[in-house]
Amino acid sequence: MDNHSKGFPKSQVFGFVLSLVLTFAALFVALKTSLSFNTIIWIIGTLAIVQAGLQLFMFMHLKEGEDGNSQTINVIYGVFIAVVTVAGSIWVMSFGM
Amino acid sequence: MDGKTKKKEWKNMSTNVNTSLPLEFQTEQNRMNILGFWMFLGAEIVLFATLFATYSVLSTRYAGGPTPHELYDIKGVMIETILLLTSSFTCGIAIYEMHRHNKKGLLTWLIITLLLGLGFVGMEISEFIHYVHEGATMQTSAFLSSFFVLLGTHGLHVSMGIGWATMVIIQILKRGLTPVTARKTFIIGLYWHFLDVVWIFIFTFVYLKGLV
Amino acid sequence: MGIKWDRFFITGDPLILGSQIAILLTMIGIVVLVSYLKKWKWLWTEWLTTVDHKRIGIMYILVGVLMFFRGGIDGLLMKAQTATPDGQLLDAQHYNEVFTTHGVVMILFMAMPFLIGIMNVIVPLQIGARDVAFPQLNALSFWLTFSGAMLFNISFVIGGSPDAGWTAYFPLAGKEFSPGIGNNFYAVAIQIAGIGTLMTGINFIVTILKMRAKGMTLMKMPMFSWTSFVTSIIIAASFPILTVALALMTFDRIFGTHFFTLSGGGMDMMWVNLFWLWGHPEVYIVVLPAFGMFSEVISTFSRKTLFGYKSMVGSIVGIAILSMLVWVHHFFTMGAGPGVNSIFSITTMMIAIPTGVKMFNWLFTMRKGRIQFTTAMLWALAFVPCFLIGGITGVMLAMGAADYQYHNTLFLVAHFHYVLIPGVVFAVFAGLYYWWPKMFGHMLNEKLGKLHFWLFVIGFNMTFMPMFFLGLNGAVRRAYTYSAESGFGPLMLVSAIGAGILAIGFAFFCYNIYWSARYADRNISSDPWDARTLEWATASPVQFYNFAKIPEVTSLDAFWYMKKKNKGLKFSNDELEEIHMPSNSGLPFIMSIVFGISGFLLVFEWKIAALVAALGILICLAIRSFDYNDGYHVPVDEIKEIEYGWQNKEKGVEKHVN
């Protein structure tokens, strides 16, 4: 764990700039390009997941502390349930068509 | 390990302080609270996922009401997004200052975070009022029901966070930076970043997807 | 606006009028009795404000027993109504209400409190902890469950019971087809209890991860603690789905949204989808702790370590993942394409594998064991064949194409009763007979216990076995009557008589509690069964701090090896240190009452009043945030005195079981 006794919050500023870049990239891809709908959704979805990961690791320090592993497994399991819930619901409610 | 050190380790959970760690991790009770909050966030992931699932299933069911293209205004959405992203950043700085034991810096950045959060909530409320004036209410269509409940749940979380953080600020002012107040601040920080994560997905899968 | 005074009290039905009078008299009776005995202060300081996990557990179990009564009477009413063709006891509406509340009460307010209650009492003891991670949150969990249960139960005298089935499918459960407020009770009361359950899940995850005794790695943890751990994880993963589903239902019913309605673009099947996304994991939430209890009981009374411990752990972890992937098998008949139904048929059949692994592990644990036929062990033995019938019929139902035949018949009803009664109720009885001395310092009577066992098991099989055949012959579930020409009469009568026998069995259990409380021998060992896990290493009933000195664990079945090697059991007085304990708090109780009031107002759609009451919840949270009470310390002298008391008694105890 890094001990911030003095200096400049490098990782925070880096994370912030990166998240702004990702946000505007998504905006650009979604509204200013003429890719197909599915391609756009895949690209902006990936950008969103990257940005979420950024928040988790750079701001929330998911893996830090003596329970880093438990926290990580917990988030992975939560994301698994989330994917099952969202993708499963969409698929089942389309009646498999 | 001999008996003496062992006993020490198993003694009371909130008075046995390990000063080699950051303030918020110094007592066993603190470590348990932080882990417990992560577990709560796991549950929150599922809660929001269910709302996203509902929105995804119902998002094209307009029932003759307005569509996303007619409704969403990207300018306002971008301002909200940047407000919340910035507040997540300032919240990170606040925790950074806390680790430097800089109480004043912590309080300053925390208050900036809350002001940005208030700005976000204000923007969102005016967005909702605008929609209602256009005749797009929760009762109009399945699409709008799921839109308002998903966004409203997020907005309610942010509002609760503002109230909660205000109470923690009062406690820091009264008691200074102790392991307990540091833990509470750290947990608020986790909560705030998490709400930013949720917003990223709302921004992407509600607004951008609706406007493509 | 919106005030429905005319719907406030249910009038006109003699059965309900009788209940109203009975409830009123009981309430007056309790108040008079407590006042007469001058026990108000005792009630407040010892129980209502307690944060002790053992007392909270006992209160959970008490709720479970009471709700078993309520749900059981619903069940008996149904059986009485259908005992003969064209029965006249209940009309269609009343029958709808009875089967709805039977389901909700039995799953959410009987099974859950029983299991969470036993988890509360036993898990911290088994892992060698002094309490759970968040004792005050634990009290809040209990009181929210209690508040939800009470709110749900008053529906039948005030406002009207829900009547759309325990699954409350839309569109029937929507405002359009159920305009009364009965289903508001469903949405709000379960919500309140569900929040409490979610908090329990988080609490136990942290407790088990962080508070195990020194040396107890995860793979040296007793099986009941393991199953409780995985159950807690599934709770934290699936209860948020229920929270959202119920919130959306509330919005649809009270605020006019269109999630599940037929108009406005809503999708009624989305409710079914969300309900079972929670509902299927819920089955595993109730059945896993039960599996853990059987593991402890079978291992103790076979005098052997649990066979295949690692495969058991592997299979319950596997269930934590698989249980989230099977929910569609509850609505194959929705008519989704072959792709959807096939995939969910396969995942459903796959889940039989880890369950099968467990079955074999229990059988092999008993193999070559020196089995003692105590009442607790009898329940475990009866569980194996009964649950097997439930499981095998489950695999039959898992086949999507065949399910079109079984769906909505009594075959299905028989199947899930064969899963849930052996899987949960037998387990709870086994657990209660097994751990009763730990909780109360005396055993339940074995002779009465065996009567209870035989009557209950015979009654259970007589009630539900005929339903398989009735279902295959086409008898549909939730039908309040049938004609004599259908030919269902004889088997229905057998089933009804079975239900009566089952009820007599339960009455023997209640009598056993009473008899044992009055007459059972108090002079018993703190380890009467010669058991294997840490909860038996301390006094019975357990002193409030659980362990004077936290034992150190070196192997699975820690206590058994401590006894064999005679190591780590005794400690000298100068090893003792002050113990830090959490203080009692009235806040959880008060907060749950505010929750209940707010929920009640919301049920009646008095929105502004409900909102005002909900502010009370926020005030309670704020008070909690500013509460810096850090508990208190138990002085060494007091610990010495308590320890001396029970350890000296040990010398002269009577052996009850060898």
TrEMBL record, chain A:
Gene label: qoxD
A molecular-function term among this protein's GO annotations: oxidoreductase activity
Reactions mediated catalytically: 2 a quinol + O2 = 2 a quinone + 2 H2O
Protein's membrane topology: Multi-pass membrane protein
Predominant location category: membrane
Cited function: Catalyzes quinol oxidation with the concomitant reduction of oxygen to water.
Transmembrane domains' residue ranges: 12-31, 37-60, 72-93
Family per record: Belongs to the cytochrome c oxidase bacterial subunit 4 family.
Identification of the protein by name: Quinol oxidase subunit 4
InterPro entries: Cyt_c_oxidase_su4_prok, Cytochrome_c_oxidase_bac_sub4, QoxD
Organism taxonomic ancestry: Bacteria, Bacillati, Bacillota, Bacilli, Bacillales
Pfam families (alphabetical): COX4_pro
Enzyme class: oxidoreductase
Keywords: Cell membrane, Membrane, Oxidoreductase, Transmembrane, Transmembrane helix
Compartments, as annotated in UniProt: Cell membrane
Taxonomy, superkingdom: Bacteria
EC number: 1.10.3.-
UniProtKB/TrEMBL annotation, chain B:
Transmembrane segments: 35-57, 77-96, 105-123, 143-173, 185-208
Membrane topology, as annotated: Multi-pass membrane protein
Major subcellular site: membrane
Compartments in which it is found: Cell membrane
Record's catalysed reaction(s): 2 a quinol + O2 = 2 a quinone + 2 H2O
CDD domains: Ubiquinol_oxidase_III
Domain Heme-copper oxidase subunit III family profile: 35-211
One Gene Ontology MF term: oxidoreductase activity
Keywords, in A-Z order: Cell membrane, Membrane, Oxidoreductase, Transmembrane, Transmembrane helix
Broadest EC class assigned to this enzyme: oxidoreductase
Family matches, as Pfam families: COX3
Top-level lineage group: Bacteria
EC number, UniProt record: 1.10.3.-
Coiled-coil annotated spans: none
Function description: Catalyzes quinol oxidation with the concomitant reduction of oxygen to water.
Family: Belongs to the cytochrome c oxidase subunit 3 family.
Alphabetical list of NCBIfam families matching this protein: QoxC
Protein name (database record): Quinol oxidase subunit 3
Source organism of this protein record: Neobacillus rhizosphaerae
Gene: qoxC
TrEMBL record, chain C:
Keywords: Cell membrane, Copper, Electron transport, Heme, Hydrogen ion transport, Ion transport, Iron, Membrane, Metal-binding, Oxidoreductase, Respiratory chain, Transmembrane, Transmembrane helix, Transport
Catalytic activity: 2 a quinol + O2 = 2 a quinone + 2 H2O
Pfam families on file: COX1
Membrane topology: Multi-pass membrane protein
UniProt GO molecular function: oxidoreductase activity
Cofactor(s) annotated in UniProt: Cu cation; ferriheme a
Protein location: Cell membrane
Pathway membership, UniProt: Energy metabolism; oxidative phosphorylation
TM ranges: 15-37, 58-78, 98-125, 137-158, 185-209, 229-251, 271-294, 306-330, 342-364, 376-402, 414-436, 448-471, 491-514, 586-602, 608-626
General function of this protein: Catalyzes quinol oxidation with the concomitant reduction of oxygen to water.
Annotated protein name in UniProt: Quinol oxidase subunit 1
Organism field: Neobacillus rhizosphaerae
Species classification: Bacteria, Bacillati, Bacillota, Bacilli, Bacillales
